Amino acid sequence: MRIRIKRIYDPIAEEDGFRVLVDRLWPRGVKKADARLDLWAKELAPSPELRKWFAHEQSRFPEFQRRYRAELDENQSAIPALVEKAGERPITLLFAAKNLHCNHAVVLQAYLEER
Asked: What is the value of pTM for the model shown?
């Protein structure tokens, strides 16, 4: 299974495959009809408390990763459903964060690839 990540604001591409929004909140300025999502997996996003604590501060990223992975460990039921729905297609995890390297989608991608 090939898993990519990209911002929801980036152009849609055929190679995106199964497009999954992994943010709990709908991204600003994006019309639902234009997003061309296959799935909105809110349950795979960090909890509101963790998201607020992190606040995209790079110095908190290592601790954020640890806490977010612990949340994912407790939410195992959502992962097989995602893989099953995607089938044999590539999966693209979509996120709204501005930082391409310090966000929850990076952590989720690594987490899924390890399984």
From this structure: 0.93
